[in-house]
Specification:
Blueprint (H helix, E strand, L loop, with lengths): L3 H12 L3 H8 L2 H4 L18 E6 L5 H18 L7 E6 L2 H9 L16 E3 L4 E3 L5 E6 L13 E5 L7 H11 L7 E6 L5 H7 L4 E6 L10 H11 L3 H6 L15 H5 L9 E9 L12 E8 L4 E6 L7 H14 L4 E5 L5 H10 L5 E4 L5 H13 L3 E3 L4 H9 L12 H15 L11
Parallel strand pairs: 1-7, 1-8, 2-5, 2-6, 6-7, 9-12, 11-14, 12-13
Antiparallel strand pairs: 3-4, 4-5, 9-10, 10-11
Helix pairs in contact: 11-12, 13-15
Length: about 450
């Protein structure tokens, strides 16, 4: 952090500049950007890079870096006289995400331009147009075929690790990135163990930059940063969401990344059963273990689908009970499965205070957490469990679960609830009747 004396020197220097210079400095990204937010000069071999991959934690400034790079590309195309063929692709998880984050967001394209040089956002055409003639088109990763045909001089891809059809969208874009003398693309994303990220990182023409949430502390609420560090520092989720690390398999862990990623689904088929599993905390303080609440269903294909993680941190019994009942109603569940090792009859009592008629199955752990989790992990290895969407905190616990039955020294509340849900749906389910043939 700059000293009081250096801040005084900067303020004094700025006070002596004419208004025009001040306006220029206000919008000059080179002046205010951190070094890790500026594009690299070349790749590891001294050649021009094709892909700049920015792996960043939440609020690390990666979106601003992507938007500023697109702005610089638009200005460069205009100066080179190539504005007429200067087309840029903006690709996000959905069109709504492209618009709300990449275009109209607080760090998006419109926000990084000075008022007099701001491009027009033409929603009906799904494009941004600069007065120079340069155009940026909006694309959704849900529709890779929309990238078949157009061609571009540059591209910005945001949160590619979340894309459901990442491989197809990436391939279609590469065929279209062919205008100008040196087409380039910037990828900004919070890292997740997705195959597309490993593929991009493995290409020789890729330069990788890692940015941490803490690096952007000057632009974040101090309370947010301290709370995130206090709660997630040192955990797998913190390393991914705050430090921008790409988390892969942990040696000795029961679960593997590929078991989760390979069978991740955008939705579930019609479900035969849905359960809400609850792992109540021992106490109800802010520092106590959370109340694990997991929702899962069983499809006609005999596969289990993890639908939601409604876990609450350190809450009073009536609060987590109400959350469990809400999940039961939201997903039209068949029953609530609740562990009673810690709370005994109190667990059932507090749930029935919220809804006396809710079906509840009380379960008691007779084996250690690791032994209970092993057969559930085997279901994942066999491809019999699919996660509907992403459940980052739950998945981080799964990947960090150790032989001591703990995650970073704490009880795996979310994982415990998951184990009870899948045990109820598959492991403890009555066998299917044999098919009789005549």
């Amino acid at each position: 952090m700059a000293s009081a004396a250096s801040r005084y020197d900067v303020a004094a220097a700025l006070a002596g500049l004419p208004p025009g210079h001040l306006r220029f400095l206000e919008w000059d990204w080179q002046t205010w950007a951190r070094d890790d937010q500026l594009p690299p000069e070349c790749d590891a071999h001294g050649r021009h890079w094709r892909t700049w991959l920015i792996l960043g934690g939440r609020g690390s400034g990666k979106t601003r870096a992507g938007a500023e790079w697109v702005r610089s590309q638009a200005e460069s195309l205009a100066r080179s006289g190539a504005a007429g063929s200067g087309r840029i692709a903006l690709v996000g998880e959905t069109l709504d995400q492209v618009r709300s984050v990449m275009v109209e967001g607080v760090s998006g394209l419109l926000a990084v331009h000075p008022p007099g040089g701001r491009p027009r956002f033409e929603l009906s055409k799904r494009q941004i147009a600069w007065s120079s003639g340069v155009v940026a088109q909006l694309f959704s990763a849900e529709d890779p075929e929309s990238l078949r045909g157009p061609q571009f001089a540059a591209a910005w891809l945001d949160e590619i690790a979340k894309w459901r059809r990442a491989e197809e969208t990436w391939d279609m874009l590469q065929f279209g990135l062919r205008l100008g003398t040196m087409p380039q693309q910037v990828v900004t994303t919070t890292p997740r163990p997705a195959a597309i990220l490993k593929r991009i990182m493995g290409e020789e023409s890729t330069v990788v930059t890692r940015v941490r949430t803490a690096d952007n502390a000057a632009n974040l609420a101090p309370a947010f940063l301290s709370q995130m560090q206090r709660r997630y520092a040192g955990t797998l989720l913190g390393r991914q969401e705050l430090e921008g690390e790409l988390i892969d398999d942990v040696p000795g862990a029961l679960w593997r990344v590929e078991w989760i990623e390979q069978h991740r689904a955008a939705g579930s088929p019609p479900l035969q059963r849905v359960v809400v599993a609850v792992d109540p905390p021992v106490t109800a303080t802010k520092s106590s273990d959370a109340c694990g609440i997991c929702v899962a269903g069983l499809g006609a294909d005999r596969r289990a689908y993890v639908l939601a993680d409604r876990t609450l941190q350190g809450r009073e019994p009536h609060v987590w009970a109400r959350a469990a009942i809400t999940a039961y109603r939201d997903f039209a569940a068949d029953r609530i499965v609740a562990e009673v090792n810690q709370g005994g009859d109190l667990v059932e009592s507090v749930l029935r205070q919220i809804d006396p008629a809710v079906p509840i199955r009380m379960v008691r752990a007779t084996r250690g957490k690791w032994l209970r989790a092993e057969p559930v992990a085997a279901l994942y290895a066999e491809g019999r469990v699919a996660h509907v969407g992403r459940h980052a905190a739950l998945e981080a616990q799964m990947l960090a679960f150790g032989a001591d039955g703990l995650v970073a020294g704490r009880s795996p509340d979310r994982l415990d609830a998951l184990v009870w849900a899948l045990t109820e749906l598959i492991l403890d389910a009555p066998p299917r009747p044999a098919v009789r043939t005549l």
